[in-house]
């Protein structure tokens, strides 16, 4: 099986500490927030929240969560996400990889609970399903890495559904020049890793960059920061001879996997390391 599984899929997160952090948010308890002391919670309607200065210390390490939008758990997208998490861990971050295809969830149901003034779900996704606990974890994360294969010119369906649930509840229907367009209470780093079968030249012709730029804009608007990494011409099958195709040259694909993919892995590691730097 290629690529080789480079590390276990179990989260590195320390469960007890993590449970405590969620309880901390639930109880709306006081915690250190940069130089001052502030309550860590989601904002109420019309309320602006301060930016959190990430401590990222040994006592309070950064928490970085990656989301795999490919159904395959050991192939291109997940391998690059794991490298990104290794990069984050190299900066002392606690990391976790979530395989979206393992979760039972749907995209936004357009209920507008997240935008109902004074409502119980204001600033949060009101839908309750397999994604709900993950969305809760994100409230305390310090960086997010999204990863998706390109399917029919776009991110996978699972990733798109996830993005609707991740981004829309925090996105205020505010004017473009509104200084507080997001309800997410802190600025955090986000990265997006895309993998695709086409070459870089083909990608430019097909203009996948438009979607990449749009995703960056939404992520930046909500979380304050966004960067992207594109991995082209990926190796797609264990054995090309078994697949009905004459589009790809198996030898060229194998060379690409051997020579270029390790470089993409390095870029992913560096991205993860940057995201966990917290500045
Ligand atoms: C349903 C499907 C649709 C795809 N559509 C495209 C596409 O439009 N453009 C492209 O470059 N690659 C396309 N691919 C190839 C994948 O994007 C590519 O192999 C990717 O690296 C797979 O990621 P994974 O190895 O993590 O599963 C498609 C693959 C599948 C299964």
Describe this structure in words.
With 279 residues, this protein is α/β, with parallel strands linked by helices. It has a single domain, classed as Rossmann fold (3-Layer(aba) Sandwich), CATH 3.40.50. The protein contains eight helices and eight strands. Strand 1 (30-33) and strand 2 (36-39) form a beta hairpin. The longest helix has 15 residues, at 76-90. It binds flavin mononucleotide. Flavin mononucleotide is lined by residues 70, 72, 75-78, 149-153, 195-198, 234, 236.
What is the element layout, followed by pairings?
Blueprint: H1 15-26, E1 30-33, E2 36-39, E3 63-68, H2 76-90, E4 94-99, H3 132-139, E5 143-151, E6 154-155, H4 157-167, E7 189-195, H5 200-206, H6 209-223, E8 227-231, H7 250-259, H8 261-275
Parallel strand pairs: 3-4, 3-5, 5-7, 7-8
Antiparallel strand pairs: 1-2, 5-6
Bound molecules: flavin mononucleotide (FMN).
> Mind telling me the C-alpha Rg?
19 Å
CATH class, anyone?
Alpha Beta
Count of helical regions: 8
Instruction: Find the CATH superfamily.
Output: Flavodoxin domain
Strand content of the residues, in percent?
15-25%
**What gap, in angstroms, lies between the N and C termini?**
38 Å
Q: Which oligomerization state do the chains in this entry correspond to?
A: single chain
In this entry the ligands are: flavin mononucleotide
SSE string, helices as H and strands as E:
HEEEHEHEEHEHHEHH
DSSP helix fraction: 25-40%
* Structural class assignment: alpha/beta
Q: What is the CATH third-level topology name?
A: Rossmann fold
The second-level CATH architecture is 3-Layer(aba) Sandwich
Anisotropy-based shape: globular
List the domain count as a whole number: 1
What's the average pLDDT? Answer: 85
Show unreliable segments.
4-41, 48-53
Biggest sheet overview: 6 strands, mixed
How many DSSP E strands? 8
